[in-house]
Design goal:
By secondary structure, the chain is of the alpha/beta class. Helix content is 48%, strand content 14%. Helix 5 links the parallel strand 3 and strand 4.
Amino acid sequence: MSGPSAAAASASRLGVGVVGAGRVGPVLARALAGAGHAITGISAVSAESRERAESMLPGVPVLEVAEVVRRSELVLFAIPGAELPALVSGLAATGAWQPGQLAVHTAPEHGFGVFAPALASGVIPLALHPALVFTGTSLDLSRLAGAAVAVTAPGPVLPIGQALAVEMGAEPVIVREEDRPAYAEAMAAAVEFSGAVVRQAAGALRELGLAQPDRVIGGVVRAAVEEALLAAHAGPGAEPDPEA
């Protein structure tokens, strides 16, 4: 697909099917619906995921995975990365993929190569990972605004991935295929270490008898994170503020 045709495809309205009704899939589907795309269906297994799908995407049918794929021009896989290879291969083995179909996943550790079994069917592969911690509620829609989405795709179709990220309200950031594992590690470290620091500090204050340690450390944590992010933006050679 050439650059102009990719840009045209990204600008068109698509029938979007979602595989996975965890915290991520329904939110991204809602964002894409807000950009004018039609949600054709969503797969959901547990009662909790069905409730979430109904809450975030009222009126969208809950379907089997193969039926979601059959009905959709773009299939969004919002499932754990460990489950993705087997599902992609299984769909290829049953002939579920369609030529020209966009296949998108949100797993940070995989690039577009995970869709290799589907390429023979003419599938267009993309990897889009929103750098967010999702709640699975409409609150995430506002958090998407200005958030980064890591886009990994073959060069000719990168514009499609970038356009989809923008349509979600986010900022696309290109991550190379070979860098996805390291990117995933960095994202996991950011979530785990920041959470661990808050838990440790809150626990220490609770032992001192403070009933609401979150209120005590909230301002400090937010300010510290903002300062660290400013320093990261400035780069390793930036001079520290002598008045700090």
